[in-house]
Design goal:
8-stranded mixed β-sheet; 11 helices; Hypothetical Protein, Haloacid Dehalogenase-like Hydrolase, Chain: A, domain 2; Rossmann fold; single chain; alpha/beta
């Protein structure tokens, strides 16, 4: 672990506690890691605007892998990579949402808009601290989108996922369940793994020198790509299976355990078993 130069870390369910606030031990460990010369990168399905407050708390300008890899910024907040959904794909997704009366969030650069007010808008706002800005679906049809997000009851999300995966128009679109009540739509091939690859190429760091920490299915490609995959013990079964390092839960500051081990390894040559 002495050769790790970059650590990518998921936010919700991983760096953040169940109350979706950062564990103080994780904050301190990330700061200490940066002081050792290791780059710490938050990698989340969240829009970039809701990631920046935590970034500021860490005392950093960047980097960030946001929107599940669709928007990546570098060490000085420069745009490294950005992808957008086509207007035709956006139209198909919004048609479905309108027909089923499903809440939609639209993401583009620093903007996140909500298709309607109500309990799902309030739920997202409570999770992220974001003040809702309403943009009706008809207006969303005319706006660029890095990604779209459905928020609904888990059973409706499962149903929508199954139905839309069969839609041939969306065969080149990535559908991601980033929470039980979320369904994300991303440009084809986009995921956290690809976003991290773009950042790593920008920083000239090979995967053998990169670690990643996650908990959920949208962390899969990222964990598969890096040299040091780790997860908190509250992770989904598939994530636990592919992770080399199993850490305490997000509520037990499992991230800090891993980061502190890297710091110790760099200081004293200690390697996790």
């Amino acid at each position: 672990m002495r050769d790790i130069r970059l650590v990518a870390c998921d936010m919700d369910g991983t760096f953040l506690t169940s109350s979706r606030t950062p564990h103080p031990a994780n904050i301190q460990a990330a700061r200490n890691l940066a002081n050792r010369g290791v780059i710490f990168c938050l990698a989340s399905g969240r829009g970039i605007i809701t990631m920046r407050p935590l970034l500021a708390e860490l005392g950093q300008k960047g980097p960030l892998v946001s929107s599940n890899g669709a928007l990546v910024t570098g060490l000085n907040n420069e745009t490294v990579f950005e992808a957008e959904l086509s207007s035709s794909i956006t139209g198909v997704i919004l048609d479905y949402a309108e027909a089923k009366n499903i809440h939609v969030n639209r993401y583009h650069q620093d903007s996140i808009t909500f298709s309607q007010s109500g309990r799902f808008a309030d739920l997202y706002a409570s999770r992220t601290g974001l003040t809702p800005i309403i943009e009706p679906i008809n207006s969303m049809r005319q706006s660029p989108a890095t990604k779209l997000l459905f928020i609904a009851e888990p059973d409706q999300i499962l149903s929508a996922t199954a139905e839309l995966q069969k839609n041939s128009t969306l065969k080149t679109t990535s559908l991601v369940n980033s929470e039980p009540d979320y369904l994300e739509f991303l440009p084809g091939g986009i995921n956290k793994g690809l976003g991290l690859q773009e950042l790593a190429a920008h920083l000239d760091i090979p995967p053998a020198h990169i670690a990643a920490i996650g908990d959920w299915y949208n962390d899969l490609e990222m964990l598969q790509w890096v040299g040091y995959p780790a997860c908190v013990s509250n992770a989904a079964p598939e994530i636990l299976q592919i992770s080399q390092y199993k850490l305490p839960t997000n509520d037990e500051a499992g991230v800090s355990t891993f980061l502190n081990a890297i710091i110790e390894a760099k200081s004293e040559g200690i390697v996790l078993p």
